[in-house]
Here is the input.
Amino acid sequence: MNSLAQLISERRSCRKFTDEPISAEDILQLKRAALSSPTSHNCKSWEFVFVQDKETIAALAKCKQVGAAFVSGAKLCVVVFGNKAITDIWLEDASIASSFLLLQAADLGLGATWVQLRARGFEGGPTAKENVAKLLGTPSDDLEPVSIIAIGHPAESHRPYSDDRLPWDKVRDEKF
Here is the structure.
């Protein structure tokens, strides 16, 4: 395990994956990370669908008009849902869980990228929510798909962020 600071610095989005499968142990660790993510008042307003089936992954890659095609190369996709019936903070809870999955994947040496689902779809056509619900059999309209976390062994590498490349002008001390 890397230090958290090193992990954050080195974690980069990965959109190209090898054919190497993800071990059952790594998948279990990803599930633990998702289920350990904090939620408002510990309400656990998120739910997760771990998808390894190639055909289902290929269909997820087509759930919205743009920005998801690369998902077809992932060995694992985690669809992260927020439950609107549990809390009005469902989006934040699911977003935090998505971030935990990204960091856990990086810690395991896996590549991963967040694919935005909420408020996405096809212009004049079905929403990503409708497509995902049909594909995965979402049992309730209260479950809103927030993201797909596409995961696999990276087929490319990126340099870590260095301090000189960080947008320091976006951080202020005390006041604007």
Observations:
- Residues 64 and 126 are 8 Å apart (CA to CA).
- The chain has five helices and four strands.
- The mean pLDDT is 95.
